[in-house]
Design goal:
Helix content is 51%, strand content 4%. It has helices at 13-16, 19-39, 46-49, 55-68, 78-84, 103-109, and strands spanning 2-3, 92-94. It has a two-stranded antiparallel ribbon. Helix 2 (19-39) packs across helix 4 (55-68). It is elongated and about 65 Å long. 4% of the residues are buried.
């Protein structure tokens, strides 16, 4: 986020999370756990070791949620959104997401 003063601030996922996003993450993780349980139902003792939502289920669901959904608001509600995270909308000049460098671009540019 670029402010009128020229200063740049970074917002992290934790700054933008809401109850709806948490609910969606839990639903994704739950669906993964159910699919795994069904797949392992015929395997002896496998169902016992893979019951419930695991940490890896939650991590995968978290990554999928943020990959699939644009977490920045539409422009018509940006002012309200900025107020919710304690920024004065008149001081914010630009909001843009930071995209990580993909593995293919990283190796091509020689950045390690």
């Amino acid at each position: 986020m670029t402010l009128r003063s020229g200063r740049k601030d970074s917002l992290y996922r934790s700054d933008l999370i809401s109850g709806a996003i948490i609910a969606s993450i839990v639903e994704r993780a739950k669906a993964t756990a159910i699919k795994r349980s069904i797949a392992n139902a015929g395997v002896e003792n496998a169902a016992l070791s893979s019951e419930g939502i695991s940490e890896s289920d939650l991590r995968a669901a978290f990554d999928a949620e943020y990959t699939e959904n644009d977490i920045f608001p539409t422009t018509d509600i940006t002012e309200d959104w900025l107020k919710l995270i304690d920024y004065d909308p008149e001081n914010v000049v630009k909001i843009s997401p930071v995209r990580p460098i993909s593995d293919s671009r990283r190796s091509a540019s020689g950045v390690i």
